[in-house]
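Q: Entry one of two.
A:
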Amino acid sequence: MREPARGSTGFWNSLRQGGVPSAIASIMGAPTAQHMAFIRSMMREQRRPEVLHTPLNELDAVVFDLETTGFSPQHGDEILSFGAVRIRGGVVLEEEQFYTVVQSKALVPKHITELTGITQQMTEEAPTLLEGLHDFMSFVGGNVLVAHASAHDRAFLNAALWRTSKVRLTHRLIDTMMLARWLEPTRSGYGLDELLESRGIPIYGRHHALEDAKMTAQLWSCYLEDMKHKHVETLGDLYTRLSHA
């Protein structure tokens, strides 16, 4: 997606600074303007270098998953639900979790309903995408993100963030599939089900964003133990190893 042309003043400049003009805000509605401003503020300074020195066994992260109408945000597919859980070091904080279905301009295909349990009616009665993004980013805060096969989730998040707030994701994002490829290079496959089974993690509620996030969090916890034996102690160590994998 290409950023629309704009000058250095006026509406787009105000958006870039994290706000909107009062006249526009009144047209959009205060909650909408506030949501946009909050999301834009969240995208600032999320790649602080000091976090690279954080020991992995003390790292606060948010493990998340999205359910979508398909695989291509560039061709009209959209987010249907967000699921996330906090993890501190290797401890999954299951009482600190987030889940919401959101409205979608794309119709929910029958096979997606069969896979995820999300119906067209559920999306029509759900919060807007902007509201869902606002609440999700509020839950995430400044924490590092973790996801499995994260390219899919990043693409949809970037599409949604750009469409609603003209920003892109700036949080650090760790991919458990990439970790698995580094830690277990001889595996024949790296799908979530296969990796969960290999670690003895019970599989339940697959293709529900929150349940997938919880299971991925348990997988991340297992990989933290593996990384100790490879003398990977900080987030910076991990990035260095992955860049040479």
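Q: Entry two of two.
A:
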Amino acid sequence: MQLSVPPFSELLANTRESAVHLEMRDDYGTNPRLEAWQRGDRVDWNDRESWWHPFHQTIADAVSRGVVIRRARVVSEPVSEYIRWEHDATQGNIAAGEEVRWLPRSQATGFLVPANDFWLFDGNLLRVHHFAGDGSHVTDELSTDAEMLKLCASAFEVIWQRATPHSEYTI
């Protein structure tokens, strides 16, 4: 069932128990923070005001309400430049309260994974992300289809169990 897609912050604000996010791409296009990192600018993690964004606050607010937020990334190795930057930037996700794990794509054989990135909220609402070949975001869709929810939840849990916690994953 196709539903209109409210902003992520609204979806997370309505989440009571859990939100899981699966990322499958090695490149998500460019953005100003990536471009700064490519120029050699590094985040001063001791200067929270310089890197804390509304997204981080949205995550922190949900976590403070008791929502468990887990993110799993399936990545090719050796990793792309985008993933090197994302690995560095993940410290912000962790500081906001997310749990993050990494799974090398070579270890993702033997089980099925969705072809698209997604967020699953409380196990009953799926936000699927669609990207162009260059990594740019095209559109999102929402689904409450029980079979799709079950498949995505199952795939996420298999990946989560096999993945390496961020603090232990080195690139």
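A: Comment on entry two: Strands lie at 18-23, 68-75, 99-104, 118-121, 125-131, 137-143, 164-165. The first strand starts at residue 18 and ends at 23.
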